[in-house]
Write a structure and sequence with these properties.
There is one protein chain. The protein is mainly beta. The chain is 6% helix and 46% strand. It is built from two helices and 17 strands. The protein is globular and about 40 Å long. It starts with a strand and ends in a 12-residue tail after the last helix. 36% of the residues are buried.
């Protein structure tokens, strides 16, 4: 694609137009980002740009046709105070899959950002299915958003902050998990293994009501 400006032909490498972009990708060292309609397209670009950040710009709804595969790289997803609603099919499935080569940090720098959806508690539907590393530093996880599942020996979930409602985290026996912060509401199943993932020096207390 070429554009002629002032009588001089110049090559235009990339053009993206969007009236209502969903996310913005900000590469390390940049102050301005690239706007994307597709969350998964932004992830693909982030994978090739270490320590970049994907910022959610508006409330968005994602279905399994928008499934996100995080296969490699180290980057951040910032909810930015927005709501991500997941529309799951009738069968069990996963929306965001973090592969063994990926390290993803989830933040909510603005506050109030959340995941929600149409999952029931025992649906075995995953907002995050973790084979790599997931660092959670913010965000609200409604029970309808689905599970955060970490089941492989090479995977791990580190929780520093966030609000988790009604037992949406599942940790496999052979995986790594570290819990050092956050608020947990509702019930926690006895087999969840909370004590096993607490960071050294922390403790938890179960209460009725």
């Amino acid at each position: 694609l070429f554009a002629e400006l002032g009588g001089t032909a110049s090559e235009v490498k990339e053009i993206r137009f969007s009236s209502t972009p969903s996310v913005e990708l900000i590469k390390k060292g940049d102050t301005k980002g690239i706007l994307y309609d597709s969350f998964s397209d932004a992830v693909k670009e982030a994978e090739n740009n270490p320590e970049s950040a994907i910022k959610v710009l508006r409330d968005i709804k994602l279905s399994i046709s928008d499934k996100v595969d995080c296969t490699k790289g180290t980057y951040t997803i910032d909810l930015n105070g927005k709501t991500v609603t997941v529309d799951y099919p009738a069968y069990k499935d996963s929306l965001i899959v973090i592969g063994s080569g990926a390290t993803v940090t989830l933040t909510d720098n603005k506050g109030g950002g959340r995941f929600t959806g149409n999952a029931a508690r025992d649906d075995e539907k995953n907002i995050f299915l973790v084979y790599g590393r997931l660092m959670i530093k913010g965000g609200i996880f409604e029970k309808e958003a689905g599970l955060i599942s970490s089941e492989m020996s090479s995977s791990g979930v580190w929780i520093e902050n966030g609000t988790f409602k009604n037992n949406i985290i599942y940790k496999g026996k052979s995986t790594t998990g570290v819990l050092s912060g956050g608020t947990f509401e509702g019930t926690i199943a006895a087999n969840w293994g909370t004590a096993q993932i607490l960071k050294r020096g922390y403790r938890y207390q179960l209460s009725d009501g």
